[in-house]
């Protein structure tokens, strides 16, 4: 849903600019680069600030650690979190571990494909329902905007992870 929220925020900023009530947001790529994983209240209000992005990555890593612990007994949230923090002590290392764990050792292609799926997945799937809830059908991206958004978000996430 994060990716859909990003598009909605960009489209809203662009619409406000056209209405004369907001500044020009720039290109899709420059806007994504400036906002995805950025610190600050503006990014926080839109739901994809640095903390939100890190929370998503940390949550995935803790969930994976708990699943890995199931084989050896009862998983503990505290123990799973300690395991994650010991294995990946910095936020950047945890983001990198998430991207590589979720999308493979070289995550660029699979990550971009997953982002693109947000716009091509059937409306009856959870992602499709999210697209219906969070976007205005009249403000959906063009194919060129979608591709620019996918490329920029992939590049930004990889850069934040040091990949």
Question: Your description of this structure?
Answer:
There is one protein chain. The protein is an all-alpha fold and 163 residues long. The protein has one domain (2-160). The protein has helices spanning 2-18, 28-35, 41-46, 50-70, 77-87, 91-103, 108-120, 126-134, 143-160. Helix 4 crosses helix 5, helix 4 (50-70) crosses helix 6 (91-103) and helix 7 (108-120) runs antiparallel to helix 9 (143-160). It is elongated.
Layout of SSEs?
Blueprint: H1 2-18, H2 28-35, H3 41-46, H4 50-70, H5 77-87, H6 91-103, H7 108-120, H8 126-134, H9 143-160
Helix pairs in contact: 2-9, 4-5, 4-6, 7-9
Brief account:
The protein is 71% helix and 0% strand.
Sheet/helix structural class: mainly alpha
Over all CA atoms, what is the radius of gyration?
17 Å
Q: Indicate how many domains the architecture comprises.
A: 1
What sequence of helices (H) and strands (E) makes up the elements?
HHHHHHHHH
Name the average pLDDT: 82
Largest sheet: none
Q: Which percent range fits the helix content? A: over 70%
Which spans of ≥5 residues are poorly predicted at pLDDT below 50?
123-129
Oligomer: single chain
Note the gap between the termini.
23 Å
Beta fraction of the residues?
Answer: under 5%
Key attributes of the depicted protein:
163 residues, mainly alpha, 9 helices
